[in-house]
C-alpha cells in the first residue's frame, strides 16, 4: 500500500525565523548521512553504489545544456523570425540551414559565457566535475553534508589538473552559503531531505535574477515505487537497498505548486521532462514528467 502524503510536506513546517534560531532547516537527517557515508568509498566506481547516477549523468548534462541553449535569445532577423514554424513550411534542407545558422549564433553568444554554478547535495561530484569542465562554466561550488562524500569528491577532482581553480567542495549547510549564482543545480537530492521546501527556498535565494535552477527528483507514485525501489533496489540491485523512501518522493506538480504559491511572479518553469532508466540502455527522456523520475528547469525572472 502506497502511503499518501500531501503537498503540505513541501511547505516549511517551521516558521523560518524561529527555525533558524534553533537549528538549520536544511540539515540532513542522521539516517541519510549515515547511509551516504557508507556509500562514499565506492562513489566513483562506475559499477559501484552510484552506478545509476553515473549512467544518468549524460542525460542530465544534455538537459542542462539544451535548456541553456534554448534560453539564449537570437535576435538577428536574417536568421530567425521568433515564433515562425519554419520546419512546418520549408523543405528539410532549408530548415536544416536555418537550424545550423541558429546553432552557430547561439555558440557565438555562449562563447563568452562564464557561469558560476552552485551544486547542492553534490555528493562525490559526478555532476559537479562535468559541469566544471564545460566551456561555459567559470566555477562550480559543490556543497553537501556527508563528510566522507565531500572527502571523496575532493580527492577525485584533485586527479584532474584541468579542474584546478574551477571546482570547490564544501561541507556546508545551504543556509551558510553566501552570494548568488547564475545556475543552481540540485540533482537526486530533494528526495533525501526532511523539509524539501526549505532546500527550494534557500536554493532560490542563491540564484541570480535571470538565473536557472535545475533539479531532479522522483514522483511519489506506484510506478516510482516499482521502478526505483522494487526493481532498482531489490530485483536489478543497481541501487543500494534503503537508498529510497517512497514517502520522501515529491510530485512534479507539488514543485510547481510550491513555486506558484511562494514565487508567483518571479519564476518561469522552462521545462519538465520525465526520465526513465532502461536496463542495458541507460537513461532516456520522455514526455510524461508526472510519473517516475523527472528533471525540471526553473528560471528566476527578477
Ligand atoms: C543521491 S546523492 C546525489 C549526489 C549528486 N547530486 C548527484 O546527483 O550526483 C544525494 C546527496 O545529497 C546529500 N544530502 C542529503 N541531504 C542533504 C542536505 N540536507 N544538505 C546537503 N546535502 C544533502 C547526500 O549527502 C548525498 O551526497
UniProtKB/TrEMBL annotation:
Its EC number is 2.1.1.-, 2.1.1.114, 2.1.1.64. S-adenosyl-L-methionine binds at residues 60, 121, 144, 187. GO terms for biological process: methylation. Its main location: mitochondrion. HAMAP family: UbiG. GO terms for molecular function: 3-demethylubiquinol 3-O-methyltransferase activity; 3-demethylubiquinone 3-O-methyltransferase activity; metal ion binding; polyprenyldihydroxybenzoate methyltransferase activity. It comes from Zygosaccharomyces rouxii. Belongs to the class I-like SAM-binding methyltransferase superfamily. UbiG/COQ3 family. Keywords: Magnesium, Membrane, Metal-binding, Methyltransferase, Mitochondrion, Mitochondrion inner membrane, S-adenosyl-L-methionine, Transferase, Ubiquinone biosynthesis. The keyword S-adenosyl-L-methionine applies. It is found in: Mitochondrion inner membrane. Mg(2+) binds at residues 188, 191-192. InterPro entries: SAM-dependent_MTases_sf, UbiG_MeTrfase. Component of a multi-subunit COQ enzyme complex, composed of at least COQ3, COQ4, COQ5, COQ6, COQ7 and COQ9. It catalyses: a 3,4-dihydroxy-5-(all-trans-polyprenyl)benzoate + S-adenosyl-L-methionine = a 4-hydroxy-3-methoxy-5-(all-trans-polyprenyl)benzoate + S-adenosyl-L-homocysteine + H(+); a 3-demethylubiquinol + S-adenosyl-L-methionine = a ubiquinol + S-adenosyl-L-homocysteine + H(+); a 3-demethylubiquinone + S-adenosyl-L-methionine = a ubiquinone + S-adenosyl-L-homocysteine. The lineage of its organism: Eukaryota, Fungi, Dikarya, Ascomycota, Saccharomycotina. This is Ubiquinone biosynthesis O-methyltransferase, mitochondrial. It is an enzyme of class 2 (transferase). Pathway: Cofactor biosynthesis; ubiquinone biosynthesis. Its cofactor is Mg(2+). It is a peripheral membrane protein. The keyword Electron transport does not apply. GO terms for cellular component: extrinsic component of mitochondrial inner membrane. PANTHER family: METHYLTRANSFERASE, UBIQUINONE BIOSYNTHESIS O-METHYLTRANSFERASE, MITOCHONDRIAL. O-methyltransferase required for two non-consecutive steps during ubiquinone biosynthesis. Catalyzes the 2 O-methylation of 3,4-dihydroxy-5-(all-trans-polyprenyl)benzoic acid into 4-hydroxy-3-methoxy-5-(all-trans-polyprenyl)benzoic acid. Also catalyzes the last step of ubiquinone biosynthesis by mediating methylation of 3-demethylubiquinone into ubiquinone. Also able to mediate the methylation of 3-demethylubiquinol into ubiquinol.
Amino acid at each position: 500500500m502506497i502511503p499518501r502524503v500531501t503537498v503540505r510536506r513541501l511547505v516549511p513546517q517551521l516558521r523560518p525565523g524561529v527555525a533558524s534560531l534553533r537549528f538549520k532547516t536544511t540539515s540532513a537527517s542522521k539516517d541519510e548521512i549515515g547511509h551516504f557515508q557508507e556509500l562514499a568509498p565506492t562513489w566513483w566506481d562506475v559499477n559501484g553504489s552510484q552506478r545509476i547516477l553515473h549512467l544518468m549523468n549524460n542525460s542530465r548534462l544534455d538537459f542542462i545544456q539544451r535548456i541553456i541553449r534554448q534560453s539564449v535569445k537570437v535576435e538577428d532577423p536574417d536568421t530567425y523570425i521568433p515564433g515562425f514554424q519554419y520546419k512546418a513550411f520549408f523543405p528539410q534542407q532549408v530548415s536544416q540551414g536555418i537550424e545550423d545558422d541558429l546553432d552557430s549564433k547561439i555558440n557565438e553568444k555562449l562563447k563568452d559565457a562564464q557561469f558560476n554554478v552552485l551544486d547542492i547535495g553534490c555528493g562525490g561530484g559526478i555532476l559537479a566535475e562535468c559541469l566544471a569542465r564545460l566551456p561555459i562554466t567559470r566555477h562550480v561550488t559543490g556543497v553537501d553534508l556527508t563528510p566522507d562524500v565531500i572527502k571523496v569528491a575532493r580527492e577525485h577532482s584533485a586527479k584532474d589538473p584541468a579542474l584546478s581553480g574551477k571546482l570547490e567542495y564544501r561541507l556546508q549547510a545551504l543556509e551558510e552559503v553566501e552570494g548568488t549564482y547564475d545556475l543552481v543545480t540540485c540533482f537526486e537530492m530533494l528526495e533525501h531531505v526532511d523539509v524539501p521546501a526549505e532546500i527550494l527556498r534557500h536554493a532560490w535565494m542563491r540564484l541570480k535574477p535571470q538565473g536557472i535552477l535545475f533539479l531532479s527528483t522522483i514522483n511519489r507514485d506506484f510506478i516510482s515505487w516499482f521502478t526505483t525501489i522494487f526493481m532498482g533496489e531489490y530485483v536489478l540491485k543497481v541501487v543500494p537497498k534503503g537508498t529510497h523512501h517512497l514517502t520522501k518522493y515529491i510530485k512534479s506538480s507539488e514543485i510547481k505548486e510550491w513555486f506558484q504559491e511562494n514565487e508567483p511572479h518571479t519564476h518561469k518553469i522552462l521545462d519538465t521532462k520525465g526520465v526513465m532508466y532502461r536496463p542495458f540502455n541507460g537513461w532516456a527522456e520522455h514526455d510524461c514528467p508526472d510519473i517516475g523520475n523527472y528533471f525540471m528547469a526553473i528560471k528566476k525572472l527578477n
